[in-house]
Structure formats: C-alpha cells, structure tokens
Amino acid sequence: MATTPTPHNAAVEGQIAKTVLMPGDPLRAKLLADTYLENVEQFNTVRNMFGYTGTYKGQPVSVMGSGMGMPSIGIYSYELFNFYGVDNILRIGSAGGLAPEVKLRDIVIGMSSSTDSNYPSQYGMPGTIAPTADFGLLSKAVAGAEKLGYPVRVGNILASDVFYTADNSHSKWASMDVLAVEMESAALYLNAMYAHKHALTLLTISDLPLTGEALTAEERQTSFTQMMEVALSVVA
Questions:
Q1: 25 given a catalytic annotation
Q2: Considering only CA atoms, which of 52, 59, 57, 58 is closest in space to residue 21?
Q3: 159 with 183: CB under 8 angstroms?
Q4: What PANTHER family does this protein map onto (predicted)?
Q5: Which end of the chain has fewer CB atoms within 10 angstroms, the N or the C?
Q6: Which residues pair with 213 in a beta bridge?
Q7: With contact defined as beta carbons under 8 Å apart, do 2 and 83 qualify?
Q8: Are 91 and 22 in contact (CB under 8 A)?
Q9: Is the pLDDT of residue 185 over 80?
Q10: Which of 75, 56, 164 shows the shortest CA–CA distance to 119?
C-alpha cells in the first residue's frame, strides 16, 4: 500500500472504511454524514474535499466528495482503492435525464457507463473496453430500493467530459437507450476494474437537457435523500 497521507487526502491508514459513498459535492458528503452516520470523524479537508468516517446501523462507512469530472474522481477513487485499501465505492450523484421515460428526481443506477472521454485510452486495450458496475453492489442496491419502496431505473448511462455541449450529442445517446448523462462514472468503474475492486453509480435526475427542466442548486445539494438511503442499504 502506498504512503499516506497523499497530496489530496489527509487521512492516514485506518481512518477510511472499506466502503466509501462518494457524492460529487463535498457539501452533500457533509449532509450525508450529519444526517445518517453516528460516531463521525472528519478525515479530510484538503482542497475543501470533505471526507468523514462513521457508522451506519453499526457498520463502518466513509463518505467523501469527488469533485466534478473524470480527472477529479479519477484521482480520489484511485487513491482510495490503491492507497487506502478501500474495497467498494458507491458514487451518489446528480445526472441529466436523457431517455424519454426518465423524469426529474428519478433514481437511476448505472449498470454500464458509455463515455466520450479519452480516459480509457491509458490502458492501451486492443479494442473498446466497457466500463461496468460491480454486479454484487448493483444487486444489493436494487434489492435495497425495493425494500425501501423507491422505484429505480437500471441501465446504461453516459459519462461525458462536456457539460455545455456544442452539438446534438445528447439526442444521439438517447436514441441508443442511454438513460442519463453525468461526468464521473466511467473513470470510477475503470479504476475499480484496474484495481480489482468494486464500484457502482447511483444517480438522481436533477435536470432534463433535452427539455430544459431542472432543479435548483440548493435542491441538488439537500434533497437527494432517497438515493442516499438506497446507497446506505448496500452497507447495512
């Protein structure tokens, strides 16, 4: 295991649980820790990317922000998997709904993650690799959602490097039954696959790029509690 702390994470070995919930927004990480965890200790404030460890129903769990985009989550998830001995990372984030049946506040689980990013090229594969979620985490999340009574949609999502698009690409992805677009999942899945660890992405739909409907920034930060509860059901 590499030396800790790292340039991006002030935690030392043993301060981070084997399972980490990872929202993009560090304030959402704080909200989750304050609302759901007991015996909470903060392990990171570097770059204001807050990280906390506590317990949920007696089980140790950590929560840490990832920032926006694949370069950011690529750094944090790589260090968690390879430097801190983390086995499972569940991204809990916001996304834009693309498929016609996806509505605001829907919960979407990314079974696979298509991408327009160059991130996969670093592995030098002799073809196109498919960034894919861990089935064990996926099945637990679906079962947890059913137990909680929260409907979820499961399928292919898009991890894009571009938020403000200059073309009609969202419609093209929607035509291939891609459910939603966000900016982190492919890098997370690839890091997990490379480290032989486990990852899953759970998303709440915050906007609909093809229609212009959207939630406010405050609603995105504070109201995605159902998604958090589904992620925590995997831990309990």
A1: no
A2: 52
A3: yes
A4: FI09636P-RELATED, URIDINE PHOSPHORYLASE
A5: N
A6: 208
A7: yes
A8: yes
A9: yes
A10: 75
Percentage of the chain beyond pLDDT 90 is 92
Classify the phi-psi angles of 112: left when phi > 0, otherwise alpha if psi is within -120 to 50, otherwise beta: beta
CB 99 within 8 A of CB 141: no
Distance CA 7, CA 21 (A): 21
Q: So where are the chain's domains? A: 19-235
State the residue for tokens 């649980």: 17
Amino acid at 71: P
Residues ≥6 apart with Cβ < 8 Å to 141: 90, 109, 152, 200, 202, 230, 231, 233, 234
CATH 3.40.50.300 fits 19-235, yes or no: no
If you search the block for the tokens 């996304």, which residue do you land on? 95
Query: Which uninterrupted H or E stretch holds 9?
Result: none
* Whether the Cβ atoms of residue 204 and residue 225 lie closer than 8 Å to each other: no
Tokens read off for 227: 């998604």
Q: Which amino acid is at 156?
A: N
CA distance 153 to 51: 28
Active-site residue identified among 25, 106, 134, 207: 207
Residue 220 has what pLDDT?
76
